[in-house]
């Protein structure tokens, strides 16, 4: 009898273990199915259009400034570089490539030959680029600017708005752009207060934006991307976090749909932001999803 009881107990243990194993397998299958569904859904919401995205480099920038990001996004099938426009110091354009007008999320890289010139001249050059694109039949573009490229892009918007003779800006992304110059309000103002009320110390650049804000279409979606080296260093090593996010309140109050993301670590260093895969993802999600 004792042997029979031990045998039955052993069989019961085996079935119990088998039941647990089966339960774990089901949970794993469910998880895998869920992940597959999420991946399929993610792919399905990615959109392709013929609207070009114009990339504007920062102070002293070169073809490498946005070249890596465009190449990485191209490798992922999210965009296709179709044109390179070099703006000479007199405002004339050298154009390499041609827009296919296919729905491949085309990218246009803009280079300034005088890559250390002031933001007022850059604003005029952006206008020249968008006028040229309008002449080529391009009604809308996305605009992505790093550092001074973001500063000049917002100055373009606050100066010109959406002129009839230039391509309309559909979406705008600024990466590490010092909108309040290099003034850092972090010592006497929290980021939450900055986002709610704007900077409590105003640089002349920010004052100019405030004066021209009514020229900005208030339905233009905007994304601000900023970096900080660590929890104790509230800057990307060049641009204070409080300056990169300074325009948030101004644009939000104006009615613009606006969002922001903060990146932390060595890949959030100023010149590394446009080499950061997480920034790539943020740019792609905002533009093409």
Automatic annotation (TrEMBL):
PROSITE patterns tied to this protein: PROKAR_LIPOPROTEIN
Entries under Pfam families matching the protein: DUF915 (PF06028)
SUPFAM superfamilies: alpha/beta-Hydrolases (SSF53474)
Leader sequence segment: 1-18
Alphabetical keyword list: Hydrolase, Signal
Sequence segments annotated as region (Disordered): 24-44
Start-end of Basic and acidic residues biased regions: 24-33
Keyword Coiled coil: no
Name this polypeptide is given: Alpha/beta fold hydrolase
GO MF annotation list: hydrolase activity
Organism: Enterococcus hulanensis
């Amino acid at each position: 009898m004792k042997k029979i009881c031990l045998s039955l107990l052993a069989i019961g243990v085996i079935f119990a273990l088998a039941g647990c194993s089966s339960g774990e397998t089901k949970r794993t299958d469910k998880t895998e199915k869920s992940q597959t569904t999420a991946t399929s859904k993610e792919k399905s919401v990615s959109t392709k259009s013929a609207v070009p995205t114009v990339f504007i480099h920062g102070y002293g920038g070169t073809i490498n400034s946005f070249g890596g990001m465009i190449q990485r996004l191209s490798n992922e099938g999210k965009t296709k570089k179709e044109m390179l426009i070099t703006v000479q110091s007199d405002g004339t354009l050298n154009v390499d490539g041609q827009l296919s007008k296919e729905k491949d999320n085309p990218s246009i890289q803009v280079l300034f030959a005088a890559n250390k010139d002031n933001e007022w001249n850059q604003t005029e050059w952006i206008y020249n680029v968008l006028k040229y694109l309008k002449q080529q039949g391009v009604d809308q573009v996305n605009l992505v600017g790093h550092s001074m490229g973001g500063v000049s892009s917002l100055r373009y918007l606050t100066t010109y708005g959406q002129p009839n003779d230039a391509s309309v800006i559909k979406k705008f992304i600024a990466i590490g752009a010092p909108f309040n110059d290099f003034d850092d309000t972090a010592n006497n103002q929290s980021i939450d207060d900055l986002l709610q009320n704007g900077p409590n110390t105003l640089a002349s650049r920010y004052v100019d934006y405030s004066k021209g804000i009514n020229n900005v279409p208030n339905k233009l979606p905007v994304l601000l991307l900023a970096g900080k080296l660590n929890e104790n260093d509230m800057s990307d090593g060049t641009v204070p976090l409080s300056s990169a996010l300074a325009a948030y309140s101004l644009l939000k109050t104006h009615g613009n749909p606006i969002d922001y993301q903060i990146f932390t670590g060595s890949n959030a260093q100023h010149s590394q932001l446009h080499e950061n895969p997480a920034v790539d993802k943020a740019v792609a999600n905002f533009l093409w999803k």
